[in-house]
Design a protein that fits this description.
- The protein has about 60 residues and is of the alpha+beta class.
- It has helices spanning about 35-40, 45-50; strands at about 10, 15.
- A hairpin with a 5-residue loop joins strand 1 (about 10) and strand 2.
Length: about 60
């Protein structure tokens, strides 16, 4: 994702989802699960555990 409206992870490890991002990223309004967005962003484990209770992809459940 390279456009300015795409979700991203900032330097502090916060996931940023711009209001004008594709509505599929608006997890709070019927969009895809945040875990799916984090996988698309290749979020590191330390970011993943801040936002999702599911095991980190690749970790044993």
């Amino acid at each position: 994702m390279s456009n300015n409206n795409a979700p991203y992870i900032d330097q502090a490890g916060n996931i940023i989802i711009p209001f004008d991002a594709d509505h599929k990223y608006h997890y709070w309004n019927g969009g895809q699960n945040l875990s799916v967005t984090l996988q698309e962003l290749n979020a590191p484990k330390e970011v993943w555990v801040r936002y999702v209770k599911k095991p980190y992809p690749g970790d044993a459940a």
